[in-house]
Amino acid sequence: METTSSLENPGSERSDWDGSSGSGAAGGGGGGGGEDGRTFEYFGWVYHLGVNSIGQQYCRLRFLFIRGKYLEMYKRDPQENPGIKPIRRGVVGPTLMVEELGCRKINHGDLYVLRIYNRLDETKKGEIACGTAGEAQKWMEAFDHAKQQAEYELSRGGGSARNKLNMETEINLEGHRPRVKRYAHGLRNLIRIGQGPEMLLRQSSVLGARVLTDRYIEGDNGDAVEAHEWKCVQTINGVRIFEDVADSQSGKDVLVKSVGVVDATADTVFEVILNIERHQRYEWDTLTGDLELIDSYDGHYDVLYGILDPKYHSRWHSRRDFIFSRQWFRGQDGTYTILQFPAVHKEKPLRSGYRRKQINPSTWEIRSLSTPMGSNAPKCIVSQMLEIDSSRWFRWKKNNCSKFEKSVPYALLCQVAGLKEYIGANPALKYESATTVVHSNISNVSMSNGEDEDAKMQEEFYDAIAANSSSSSEDEESSNDENDKKEMKVKLKNVSWALTILSLMQTSAPDVNKELELTATPIIINPTQFHGSLHKGKDDTDTNCWTSPNGMGFMIRGKTYLEDNSKVMGGDPLLKLIAVDWFKVDKPIDKIALHPKCIVQSEIGKRLPFILVINLQVPAKPNYSLVLYYAADRPVKKSSLLAKFVDGSDMFRDARLKLIPSIVEGYWMVKRAVGTKACLLGKAVTCKYVRQDNFLEIDVDIGSSSVARSVIGLVLGYVTSIVVDLAILIEAKEETELPEYILGAVRINRLRPDSAVHLEV
């Protein structure tokens, strides 16, 4: 508890966060009961951040509990202190938003902060903090499941449920603490991850929730075909060294990577790599053991200064120093990516007696591996990729030159081996996020005034089985224990392998008759009749333009995905890309389709049966909007998945709207940052929807996520040399919705920011 007291400040609590109101349309997603009718909840220790009554910031340890849509906060664990009453309690509504703010140093400790606010009223906001990035992600999932519970009740109860939700007290972390007459009960089966409050800081404390039985972590394969071809050329201490031979004759720098399997969770490995404490780093890192934090930004970016020992890394006797930046983020599949660039900083000019060394650009990727059924031993695969001068690399590979083995690139390649051995020698690191099932003795009294309103829910939520939540509540949610019981199938990723089996692979073309009205007469869509501010390219050599790629470069869910997780190549998109606008704006603009000069408002646009408008709002100085217009030649069929998406609730849309990115050409570090994994946009960033007349507009606020902001900032630095493909899909979750199809696709070719047209509002 010593770490707890060091973070506490005196004074009464005052914060600025509310949960959302219960308003929202009924729609997609179901409630859920656990296995055998049992109830599961989320619970765990977090830090509540705020400002006390005298204006001082505080960071207080609190026990948080989420059951269904209800949330309560306690000073102590209610399971260990029966009868304790919550200090705060309320409802998590459908409009609540959770944003990851990254790592923040608070009272000499590093914590991962979540900002929680109501998207309809951003003055209602507050913050909680967690010990690790993985824990923060699990709390985000817990809040998301609570939102889905509220949405499910609206869809099942109609107006009466909406009125009741509006009347219930919102969760409120600001001002005085309201009196709470009841405390949470009915905790039948709780799953806790972590060891308790004394282990929270820099440990995984946390969340318990039921295993997501429909979740599939697909391994190293992405959802777009990449152009790398990796060949194993060496092994060092059990770690494989690979070379990208796809472009080995170009004379450019060579991409190499070291790959090893580590017996620990991805969260643990990420924490070890990010930790710059000298004594720990000396045990595994021969290169960057002496590090000093110079600066940090936005919770996902920092700048470090280090010193090289010439005895180990140079045949010269002069001392060397270096500066590099790190940028990190966690994907929706739990994979961590860390980008490392050489850097300069005004606080660390050149030093007398030192030579400034430039560290090779490199990336870390840390991905959880599925384990056999019945095994609780965590494993993850760790890769470090870097760029090496081709002449030096080929000389070492040919002659096994000892000089290379005293170089910085070699030391970087050996970091994976050092990390693997260090964690292997410290068994406590392997199981620090172990899951524990807790059987509670707390009596069964309902949290929502005794009404067992959720007991009959049997449907599944999106990406989770919801608790069979009688309306009782306690503090803290438990996190997903992420032990998916399915045997995962190894998929092929590299182009060379993909070409070998190309003839055996199926493609998934959309069934037009399934999604669009069969009896309607198709309208001939001529793209030359529509003119956006960004012109359509003539061929692949054209620049600052767009084209319409087919779906062969994307991997999407096949007909038997629910049985064997198989994916197939995408076919031609269902909707036709008719125009693209590239706007420069003073501030992000929503409802762009209602602008009088928009294509949608033109006479020919109004005659189209259906238009999908994707407004990608790019945060920068100035702000930009990349607007994509997709059209259907027939009306949308009312019983189709597309109709459910177009006319459904925002919750359903957020749970289904999927984007697959692919950097076709561009700097390799940008490719690693963007990745090729599908992303549920509504879970990653704030999306707003406008359904009117013959169109649906989706306003995607990329700036609403600090992670997305940092990635798009990197992309903008190289945008004039990048060719990027984007595919838009509606994620299929039911057997009747499979196979998936690509709704729309676009290729943006070497975009110039200065060509953006200013949009007058």
Task: Give me some keywords for this one.
EDR2_C; 10-stranded mixed sheet; 3 domains; 761 residues; lipid binding; PH-domain like; disordered N terminus; 18 helices; START-like_dom_sf; alpha+beta; 35 strands; 9-stranded mixed sheet; Alpha-D-Glucose-1,6-Bisphosphate, Chain A, domain 4; Protein ENHANCED DISEASE RESISTANCE 2-like isoform X1
Topology overview:
Layout: H1 2-7, E1 40-51, E2 57-67, E3 70-74, E4 88-91, E5 96-106, E6 109-118, E7 121-130, H2 133-167, E8 189-193, E9 208-209, E10 230-236, E11 239-244, E12 254-262, H3 266-274, H4 278-281, E13 291-297, E14 301-308, H5 310-313, E15 319-330, E16 336-342, E17 354-356, E18 362-368, E19 380-388, H6 390-399, H7 408-413, H8 415-424, H9 427-430, E20 435-438, E21 479-480, H10 495-500, E22 507-508, H11 512-515, E23 545-547, E24 555-557, H12 561-564, E25 567-570, E26 576-585, H13 603-606, E27 610-618, E28 623-632, H14 641-647, H15 650-656, E29 657-665, H16 668-674, E30 679-680, H17 681-684, E31 686-692, E32 695-701, H18 706-718, E33 723-730, E34 742-749, E35 757-758
Parallel strand pairs: 1-8, 9-21, 15-17, 22-25, 26-35, 27-32
Antiparallel strand pairs: 1-2, 1-7, 2-3, 3-4, 5-6, 6-7, 8-20, 10-11, 11-12, 12-19, 13-14, 14-15, 15-16, 16-18, 18-19, 23-34, 24-25, 26-28, 27-28, 29-30, 29-33, 31-32, 33-34
Radius of gyration: 26 Å
Mean pLDDT: 76
Largest sheet: 10 strands, mixed
- Secondary structure tally, helices: 18
Bin the helical content: 10-25%
- Domain module count: 3
The N- to C-terminal Cα distance equals 55 Å
Bin the strand percentage: 25-35%
- Segments where pLDDT lies below 50 for 5+ residues? 1-39, 175-195, 198-220, 434-505
- The total strand number stands at 35
Globally, the shape reads globular
The chain-level structural class is: alpha+beta
